[in-house]
Fold:
Amino acid sequence: MSGGTAGARSKIQTIERAIASFESGNTVRSKTVKLVIAAFDNGIELAGDPVGDWQTARAVLQGSAELRELFDKVRLLRLLKATDALAWALLDAWDGQAAYVDAAAAVQRVLSNETLEASQQDPVPVSLMSMHKSKGKEFDAVIIAEGEHGARLLDAAWDNKRVQANRRLLRVAITRARHVVVFVRPWNAVSLTGG
Structure:
């Protein structure tokens, strides 16, 4: 959160005091906690799908600087490559009805483990995968290879719906690169920029 570690600790303490006030029946002053209480009172429904539930929570919990900053920081989790481990941990924390029991501790445990494991592993110099599998990952460079007789990126014979779906998939693959994207395509490939 802004202000570095000290700023984050201050915000956490403010939210913890507001939660304690709520639990003891006292007035809650924190806008963030008021938004969470309102979402609960309005019947926010979680389904036990960590990704879908995150999207639901993000859509409902708007209007607080702390929550906005949290949503921005969560995007950085992809850099730790912890998204699958987080999903499994949250599935384990799901109570089967309406809540993730002690989700913050589960997330903290996974991030600690992933950080420790990442520091002990040698980086893989090259990863080979489909564009579908690349979703959620990030690389210094991405090479997108198109086959001459199959595995086309685009084809003039496709209908508009299929062309648009492949363009979206191609966008996913391109945006996996931090620095460089290289295309390897046959001489007769359909233009990627044309109508």
